[in-house]
Amino acid sequence: MKADENFEIDAESVGFGTFSDVYMARDKQKDLTVALKRVKQTNNKDLNNIIYYGACREVAILKTVTHENIVAFKGVCPNSRNRRQFYTVLEYCDYDLLFVRLNLTLSTPEVKCLMRQLLEGLRYLHDKKIIHRDIKPGNILINKDGVLKVADFGHARECKEETNSFSNMVVTLCYRAPEMLLGERNYGPAIDVWSAACVMAEIITGNVLFHGHDENSQIAAILDTCGPISKDVWPGVELLPLFKEKVSVLSSDGKRRLKEKLMPPLNDDFAFNLLDAILAYDPRKRLSSRDALSHEFFAAEPKAEVDLRGVITRLNQLEQQTESSQESDKLDIAHNKENRRKRRRRRRKRRTNPYSLDHQN
Ligand SMILES: Nc1ncnc2c1ncn2[C@@H]1O[C@H](COP(=O)(O)OP(=O)(O)OP(=O)(O)O)[C@@H](O)[C@H]1O
Ligand SMILES: [Mg+2]
Protein backbone atom coordinates (compact mmCIF):
# COMPACT_ATOMS: atom_id res chain seq x y z
CA MET A 1 0.00 0.00 0.00
CA LYS A 2 1.52 3.35 -1.03
CA ALA A 3 0.29 6.69 0.27
CA ASP A 4 0.42 8.45 -3.11
CA GLU A 5 -1.35 5.66 -4.98
CA ASN A 6 -3.95 4.72 -2.41
CA PHE A 7 -4.87 8.03 -0.85
CA GLU A 8 -5.84 11.46 -1.99
CA ILE A 9 -4.16 13.51 0.71
CA ASP A 10 -5.55 16.88 1.68
CA ALA A 11 -2.37 18.98 1.70
CA GLU A 12 -3.53 21.06 4.64
CA SER A 13 -2.99 19.01 7.76
CA VAL A 14 -5.88 18.79 10.20
CA GLY A 15 -3.79 18.46 13.30
CA PHE A 16 -0.35 19.40 14.49
CA GLY A 17 1.14 17.41 17.33
CA THR A 18 4.55 17.81 18.89
CA PHE A 19 5.92 14.90 16.91
CA SER A 20 3.47 14.42 14.08
CA ASP A 21 1.22 16.04 11.54
CA VAL A 22 -2.15 14.52 10.81
CA TYR A 23 -3.74 14.81 7.37
CA MET A 24 -7.25 14.18 6.17
CA ALA A 25 -7.23 11.81 3.19
CA ARG A 26 -9.56 9.81 1.00
CA ASP A 27 -8.96 6.11 0.67
CA LYS A 28 -9.49 5.82 -3.11
CA GLN A 29 -10.38 2.14 -3.12
CA LYS A 30 -12.79 2.20 -0.20
CA ASP A 31 -14.02 5.73 -0.91
CA LEU A 32 -13.60 6.49 2.78
CA THR A 33 -12.25 9.50 4.65
CA VAL A 34 -9.33 8.58 6.91
CA ALA A 35 -6.66 10.34 8.94
CA LEU A 36 -3.01 9.84 8.00
CA LYS A 37 -0.57 10.47 10.82
CA ARG A 38 3.04 11.09 9.81
CA VAL A 39 5.90 11.69 12.23
CA LYS A 40 7.88 14.88 11.85
CA GLN A 41 11.53 14.91 10.85
CA THR A 42 13.95 17.16 12.68
CA ASN A 43 17.63 17.99 12.10
CA ASN A 44 18.53 15.90 15.13
CA LYS A 45 19.21 12.27 14.21
CA ASP A 46 18.83 10.96 17.78
CA LEU A 47 15.54 12.76 18.23
CA ASN A 48 14.32 11.39 14.88
CA ASN A 49 15.10 7.87 16.12
CA ILE A 50 13.15 8.47 19.34
CA ILE A 51 10.18 9.85 17.38
CA TYR A 52 10.31 6.92 14.95
CA TYR A 53 10.46 4.45 17.83
CA GLY A 54 7.44 6.17 19.45
CA ALA A 55 5.48 5.87 16.19
CA CYS A 56 6.32 2.15 15.96
CA ARG A 57 5.25 1.65 19.57
CA GLU A 58 1.98 3.46 18.85
CA VAL A 59 1.26 1.09 15.95
CA ALA A 60 2.18 -1.97 18.04
CA ILE A 61 -0.31 -0.95 20.73
CA LEU A 62 -3.06 0.23 18.35
CA LYS A 63 -2.95 -3.16 16.62
CA THR A 64 -4.00 -4.86 19.86
CA VAL A 65 -6.95 -2.64 20.77
CA THR A 66 -10.49 -2.50 19.43
CA HIS A 67 -13.09 -0.49 21.29
CA GLU A 68 -15.75 2.03 20.39
CA ASN A 69 -14.00 4.70 22.44
CA ILE A 70 -10.50 4.08 21.09
CA VAL A 71 -9.49 5.50 17.71
CA ALA A 72 -9.61 2.68 15.14
CA PHE A 73 -6.34 1.65 13.52
CA LYS A 74 -6.59 0.84 9.81
CA GLY A 75 -2.99 0.04 8.89
CA VAL A 76 0.29 1.66 7.96
CA CYS A 77 1.65 2.67 4.60
CA PRO A 78 5.17 3.72 3.62
CA ASN A 79 6.08 7.21 2.55
CA SER A 80 7.63 6.65 -0.88
CA ARG A 81 9.70 9.84 -0.52
CA ASN A 82 11.29 8.96 2.81
CA ARG A 83 12.16 5.42 3.95
CA ARG A 84 12.36 6.48 7.62
CA GLN A 85 8.80 7.74 7.57
CA PHE A 86 5.46 6.03 7.32
CA TYR A 87 1.83 6.97 7.61
CA THR A 88 -0.39 5.49 10.28
CA VAL A 89 -3.90 5.17 8.88
CA LEU A 90 -6.61 5.94 11.43
CA GLU A 91 -10.33 6.50 11.41
CA TYR A 92 -10.98 10.18 10.82
CA CYS A 93 -12.45 12.28 13.62
CA ASP A 94 -13.66 15.82 13.05
CA TYR A 95 -12.85 17.34 16.43
CA ASP A 96 -10.58 17.06 19.39
CA LEU A 97 -11.62 18.02 22.91
CA LEU A 98 -9.57 21.21 22.80
CA PHE A 99 -12.86 22.87 21.93
CA VAL A 100 -13.64 22.88 25.67
CA ARG A 101 -11.38 25.93 25.92
CA LEU A 102 -13.73 27.86 23.64
CA ASN A 103 -16.64 29.71 25.12
CA LEU A 104 -18.99 26.72 24.93
CA THR A 105 -21.01 25.77 27.99
CA LEU A 106 -21.85 22.09 28.25
CA SER A 107 -24.88 20.74 30.09
CA THR A 108 -24.49 18.17 32.88
CA PRO A 109 -25.72 15.29 30.62
CA GLU A 110 -23.17 16.36 27.98
CA VAL A 111 -20.36 16.36 30.56
CA LYS A 112 -21.54 12.94 31.76
CA CYS A 113 -21.69 11.61 28.22
CA LEU A 114 -18.13 12.75 27.42
CA MET A 115 -16.72 11.48 30.71
CA ARG A 116 -18.52 8.14 30.52
CA GLN A 117 -17.01 7.51 27.09
CA LEU A 118 -13.54 8.63 28.18
CA LEU A 119 -13.68 6.36 31.25
CA GLU A 120 -15.05 3.46 29.15
CA GLY A 121 -12.04 3.81 26.83
CA LEU A 122 -9.69 3.91 29.81
CA ARG A 123 -11.36 0.95 31.53
CA TYR A 124 -10.85 -1.08 28.36
CA LEU A 125 -7.16 -0.13 28.19
CA HIS A 126 -6.56 -0.68 31.89
CA ASP A 127 -8.26 -4.10 31.79
CA LYS A 128 -5.78 -4.96 29.05
CA LYS A 129 -2.95 -3.66 31.25
CA ILE A 130 -2.19 -0.73 28.99
CA ILE A 131 -1.50 2.74 30.36
CA HIS A 132 -2.04 5.58 27.90
CA ARG A 133 0.30 8.09 29.60
CA ASP A 134 -0.85 11.17 27.70
CA ILE A 135 -4.53 11.77 28.42
CA LYS A 136 -5.32 15.43 27.62
CA PRO A 137 -7.94 17.27 25.54
CA GLY A 138 -5.80 17.30 22.36
CA ASN A 139 -5.57 13.50 22.45
CA ILE A 140 -9.30 12.92 22.86
CA LEU A 141 -11.22 13.03 19.58
CA ILE A 142 -14.91 13.25 18.70
CA ASN A 143 -16.22 11.91 15.41
CA LYS A 144 -19.09 13.37 13.42
CA ASP A 145 -21.56 11.06 15.17
CA GLY A 146 -20.57 12.45 18.55
CA VAL A 147 -18.59 9.39 19.65
CA LEU A 148 -15.50 10.04 21.78
CA LYS A 149 -12.24 8.30 20.82
CA VAL A 150 -9.05 8.13 22.88
CA ALA A 151 -6.13 8.76 20.49
CA ASP A 152 -2.36 9.31 20.37
CA PHE A 153 -0.77 6.17 21.73
CA GLY A 154 2.78 7.49 21.21
CA HIS A 155 3.52 7.20 24.96
CA ALA A 156 1.35 4.19 25.80
CA ARG A 157 2.92 1.21 27.60
CA GLU A 158 1.93 -2.23 28.73
CA CYS A 159 2.11 -2.68 32.51
CA LYS A 160 1.89 -6.44 32.98
CA GLU A 161 4.66 -6.78 35.58
CA GLU A 162 4.18 -6.43 39.35
CA THR A 163 6.82 -3.70 39.51
CA ASN A 164 7.83 -1.40 36.70
CA SER A 165 10.50 1.18 36.15
CA PHE A 166 8.86 3.55 33.71
CA SER A 167 9.93 7.08 32.86
CA ASN A 168 8.26 9.65 35.07
CA MET A 169 8.79 12.36 32.42
CA VAL A 170 5.80 11.40 30.31
CA VAL A 171 2.25 12.79 30.40
CA THR A 172 1.87 16.48 29.47
CA LEU A 173 2.81 18.45 32.61
CA CYS A 174 -0.62 19.93 33.46
CA TYR A 175 -2.20 16.46 33.43
CA ARG A 176 0.65 14.65 35.23
CA ALA A 177 -0.21 12.77 38.44
CA PRO A 178 1.49 13.79 41.72
CA GLU A 179 3.31 10.44 42.15
CA MET A 180 5.09 10.99 38.82
CA LEU A 181 5.99 14.55 39.79
CA LEU A 182 7.59 13.11 42.95
CA GLY A 183 9.73 10.72 40.93
CA GLU A 184 7.71 7.50 41.14
CA ARG A 185 8.67 5.12 38.32
CA ASN A 186 6.55 2.21 39.48
CA TYR A 187 3.21 3.75 38.65
CA GLY A 188 0.09 2.26 37.10
CA PRO A 189 -3.26 3.06 35.43
CA ALA A 190 -4.10 5.50 38.27
CA ILE A 191 -2.03 8.14 36.45
CA ASP A 192 -4.49 8.10 33.51
CA VAL A 193 -7.45 8.52 35.84
CA TRP A 194 -5.81 11.59 37.43
CA SER A 195 -5.42 13.06 33.92
CA ALA A 196 -9.06 12.19 33.16
CA ALA A 197 -10.18 14.18 36.23
CA CYS A 198 -8.13 17.16 35.03
CA VAL A 199 -9.89 16.84 31.65
CA MET A 200 -13.30 16.66 33.37
CA ALA A 201 -12.61 19.85 35.34
CA GLU A 202 -11.51 21.52 32.10
CA ILE A 203 -14.70 20.43 30.32
CA ILE A 204 -16.73 22.02 33.10
CA THR A 205 -14.79 25.24 33.66
CA GLY A 206 -13.15 25.80 30.26
CA ASN A 207 -9.81 26.28 32.05
CA VAL A 208 -6.82 24.06 32.73
CA LEU A 209 -7.19 22.85 36.34
CA PHE A 210 -3.51 22.79 37.38
CA HIS A 211 -1.49 25.13 35.21
CA GLY A 212 2.21 24.79 36.01
CA HIS A 213 5.06 25.65 33.65
CA ASP A 214 7.69 23.38 35.22
CA GLU A 215 7.63 20.51 37.71
CA ASN A 216 7.87 22.74 40.80
CA SER A 217 5.13 25.13 39.75
CA GLN A 218 3.01 22.15 38.70
CA ILE A 219 3.32 20.66 42.20
CA ALA A 220 2.61 24.09 43.67
CA ALA A 221 -0.55 24.45 41.52
CA ILE A 222 -1.80 21.04 42.68
CA LEU A 223 -1.06 21.81 46.35
CA ASP A 224 -2.78 25.15 46.10
CA THR A 225 -6.02 23.42 45.11
CA CYS A 226 -5.79 19.98 46.71
CA GLY A 227 -4.13 20.94 49.99
CA PRO A 228 -0.89 19.74 51.60
CA ILE A 229 0.63 16.36 50.91
CA SER A 230 1.32 14.48 54.12
CA LYS A 231 1.86 10.96 55.42
CA ASP A 232 -1.70 11.12 56.74
CA VAL A 233 -3.33 11.50 53.35
CA TRP A 234 -0.64 9.53 51.51
CA PRO A 235 1.19 6.96 53.63
CA GLY A 236 4.66 6.24 52.22
CA VAL A 237 4.90 9.48 50.20
CA GLU A 238 8.09 10.33 52.11
CA LEU A 239 9.80 7.39 50.40
CA LEU A 240 9.31 8.78 46.91
CA PRO A 241 12.62 9.80 45.28
CA LEU A 242 11.89 13.52 44.92
CA PHE A 243 9.93 14.00 48.12
CA LYS A 244 12.87 15.50 50.07
CA GLU A 245 14.03 17.65 47.16
CA LYS A 246 10.58 19.12 46.73
CA VAL A 247 9.86 19.33 50.42
CA SER A 248 10.23 23.12 50.56
CA VAL A 249 7.67 23.45 47.79
CA LEU A 250 5.51 20.84 49.48
CA SER A 251 5.35 22.58 52.86
CA SER A 252 2.00 24.16 52.17
CA ASP A 253 -0.27 24.70 55.15
CA GLY A 254 -3.28 25.45 52.98
CA LYS A 255 -6.54 23.54 52.92
CA ARG A 256 -8.11 21.48 50.16
CA ARG A 257 -9.88 24.13 48.07
CA LEU A 258 -11.08 22.01 45.18
CA LYS A 259 -14.71 23.01 45.67
CA GLU A 260 -13.90 26.73 45.72
CA LYS A 261 -11.85 26.36 42.58
CA LEU A 262 -14.59 24.54 40.67
CA MET A 263 -17.84 26.12 41.90
CA PRO A 264 -19.20 27.97 39.94
CA PRO A 265 -19.45 26.92 37.12
CA LEU A 266 -19.58 23.43 38.66
CA ASN A 267 -22.99 23.20 40.29
CA ASP A 268 -23.43 19.46 40.60
CA ASP A 269 -22.50 17.82 43.92
CA PHE A 270 -22.13 14.39 42.33
CA ALA A 271 -19.67 15.78 39.79
CA PHE A 272 -17.68 17.40 42.57
CA ASN A 273 -17.67 14.17 44.62
CA LEU A 274 -16.38 12.22 41.62
CA LEU A 275 -13.60 14.73 40.96
CA ASP A 276 -12.72 14.79 44.65
CA ALA A 277 -12.47 10.99 44.76
CA ILE A 278 -10.31 10.79 41.63
CA LEU A 279 -8.03 13.62 42.69
CA ALA A 280 -6.85 11.65 45.72
CA TYR A 281 -3.10 12.08 46.23
CA ASP A 282 -2.49 8.44 47.13
CA PRO A 283 -2.83 6.44 43.89
CA ARG A 284 -4.08 3.44 45.92
CA LYS A 285 -7.02 5.51 47.18
CA ARG A 286 -7.76 7.10 43.80
CA LEU A 287 -10.85 5.73 42.03
CA SER A 288 -10.02 3.36 39.20
CA SER A 289 -11.62 3.89 35.78
CA ARG A 290 -13.97 0.98 36.57
CA ASP A 291 -14.99 2.41 39.96
CA ALA A 292 -15.40 5.88 38.50
CA LEU A 293 -17.94 4.50 36.02
CA SER A 294 -20.01 3.12 38.92
CA HIS A 295 -19.96 6.47 40.72
CA GLU A 296 -23.34 7.97 41.54
CA PHE A 297 -22.55 10.91 39.22
CA PHE A 298 -23.42 8.62 36.30
CA ALA A 299 -26.42 6.98 38.01
CA ALA A 300 -28.04 10.24 39.12
CA GLU A 301 -30.52 12.25 37.07
CA PRO A 302 -30.10 13.85 34.59
CA LYS A 303 -28.58 10.82 32.87
CA ALA A 304 -25.87 10.87 30.24
CA GLU A 305 -28.37 9.97 27.52
CA VAL A 306 -27.74 12.84 25.19
CA ASP A 307 -26.64 13.16 21.58
CA LEU A 308 -23.26 14.87 21.41
CA ARG A 309 -24.05 15.97 17.87
CA GLY A 310 -25.82 18.88 19.61
CA VAL A 311 -22.43 20.00 20.96
CA ILE A 312 -20.96 19.72 17.45
CA THR A 313 -23.76 21.89 16.02
CA ARG A 314 -23.13 24.57 18.66
CA LEU A 315 -19.41 24.32 18.06
CA ASN A 316 -19.90 24.80 14.30
CA GLN A 317 -22.10 27.83 14.95
CA LEU A 318 -19.46 29.28 17.28
CA GLU A 319 -16.74 28.68 14.70
CA GLN A 320 -18.83 30.33 11.98
CA GLN A 321 -19.44 33.36 14.20
CA THR A 322 -15.71 33.62 14.98
CA GLU A 323 -14.86 33.21 11.29
CA SER A 324 -17.32 35.88 10.19
CA SER A 325 -16.07 38.31 12.84
CA GLN A 326 -12.50 37.53 11.69
CA GLU A 327 -13.66 38.09 8.09
CA SER A 328 -15.05 41.50 9.03
CA ASP A 329 -11.78 42.25 10.87
CA LYS A 330 -9.97 41.33 7.67
CA LEU A 331 -12.31 43.59 5.67
CA ASP A 332 -11.60 46.40 8.14
CA ILE A 333 -7.88 45.85 7.72
CA ALA A 334 -8.26 45.78 3.92
CA HIS A 335 -10.41 48.89 4.10
CA ASN A 336 -7.81 50.66 6.25
CA LYS A 337 -5.06 49.56 3.87
CA GLU A 338 -7.00 50.96 0.92
CA ASN A 339 -7.56 54.23 2.81
CA ARG A 340 -3.88 54.46 3.65
CA ARG A 341 -3.03 53.84 -0.01
CA LYS A 342 -5.46 56.60 -1.07
CA ARG A 343 -3.94 59.00 1.44
CA ARG A 344 -0.44 58.17 0.19
CA ARG A 345 -1.55 58.74 -3.40
CA ARG A 346 -3.07 62.07 -2.44
CA ARG A 347 0.10 63.12 -0.63
CA ARG A 348 2.18 62.20 -3.70
CA LYS A 349 -0.20 64.14 -5.92
CA ARG A 350 0.16 67.14 -3.69
CA ARG A 351 3.92 67.03 -4.00
CA THR A 352 3.81 66.64 -7.76
CA ASN A 353 0.88 68.94 -8.47
CA PRO A 354 0.77 71.93 -6.12
CA TYR A 355 -2.41 73.13 -7.79
CA SER A 356 -4.52 70.03 -7.19
CA LEU A 357 -7.84 70.31 -5.38
CA ASP A 358 -6.42 68.30 -2.54
CA HIS A 359 -3.74 70.88 -2.08
CA GLN A 360 -6.25 73.71 -2.08
CA ASN A 361 -8.31 72.02 0.56
N1 LIG B 1 -7.72 10.25 13.75
C1 LIG B 1 -7.67 11.57 13.71
N2 LIG B 1 -8.60 12.27 13.03
C2 LIG B 1 -8.55 13.62 12.97
N3 LIG B 1 -7.64 14.36 13.61
C3 LIG B 1 -6.68 13.73 14.32
C4 LIG B 1 -6.63 12.31 14.40
N4 LIG B 1 -5.59 11.96 15.17
C5 LIG B 1 -5.01 13.10 15.55
N5 LIG B 1 -5.65 14.17 15.05
C6 LIG B 1 -5.33 15.60 15.28
O1 LIG B 1 -3.94 15.77 15.19
C7 LIG B 1 -3.39 16.25 16.42
C8 LIG B 1 -2.04 15.60 16.64
O2 LIG B 1 -2.19 14.19 16.68
P1 LIG B 1 -1.50 13.31 17.81
O3 LIG B 1 -1.93 13.81 19.14
O4 LIG B 1 -1.79 11.89 17.52
O5 LIG B 1 0.04 13.67 17.52
P2 LIG B 1 1.30 13.80 18.48
O6 LIG B 1 2.42 14.44 17.72
O7 LIG B 1 1.58 12.49 19.04
O8 LIG B 1 0.75 14.79 19.58
P3 LIG B 1 1.34 15.34 20.96
O9 LIG B 1 1.59 16.79 20.73
O10 LIG B 1 0.17 15.12 21.88
O11 LIG B 1 2.53 14.53 21.33
C9 LIG B 1 -4.44 15.91 17.48
O12 LIG B 1 -4.41 16.82 18.57
C10 LIG B 1 -5.74 16.01 16.69
O13 LIG B 1 -6.20 17.35 16.66
MG1 LIG C 1 -1.25 14.32 20.79
Automatic annotation (TrEMBL):
Ranges of Basic residues composition bias in the record: 338-352
Entry keyword set: ATP-binding, Kinase, Nucleotide-binding, Nucleus, Serine/threonine-protein kinase, Transferase
Signal peptide extent: none
Domain of life: Eukaryota
Bias-annotated ranges (Basic and acidic residues): 327-337
Transmembrane annotation, as ranges: none
InterPro entries: CDK, Kinase-like_dom_sf, Prot_kinase_dom, Protein_kinase_ATP_BS, Ser/Thr_kinase_AS
Major localisation: nucleus
Binding site for ATP: 37
GO molecular function per UniProt: ATP binding; cyclin-dependent protein serine/threonine kinase activity
Domain Protein kinase: 8-298
GO CC annotations on file: nucleus
Family: Belongs to the protein kinase superfamily. CMGC Ser/Thr protein kinase family. CDC2/CDKX subfamily.
Protein name: Protein kinase domain-containing protein
Top-level taxonomy: Eukaryota, Metazoa, Ecdysozoa, Arthropoda, Hexapoda
